[in-house]
Amino acid sequence: MSEGTWLACVDCKVMLPLGRAVKDPATRDIVFIAEYRSGRPARLDERLDRVLWKMLAEHPGHRLEVVRENSTQLDDLGEMLTLGEDEIGSPTLEEYLAGWPG
User: Fold this and answer.
1) What percent of the chain has pLDDT over 70?
2) Which phi and psi (to 5°) does residue 91 adopt?
């Protein structure tokens, strides 16, 4: 079983898709987060790693939360700008990283 997960800055209304939370079927605990398309551990994606570090650098002192699909927590966030999504006005991950030296 798996469900989508995001890192959300509650204060700035921005969130980053992290991937799918892969769960242990017996305990339902999250074992790791995987890339959406390949199923590989998300930690192996260098681009996602850079985006994550940039987001952390831009939001010190803010309320950051890891939210899961199908949770009231996600619903409570309301309208959010999602990085890397195919939404109008949402930057691609490449656009978000452009010019960042990290």
Assistant:
1) 98
2) -70, 145
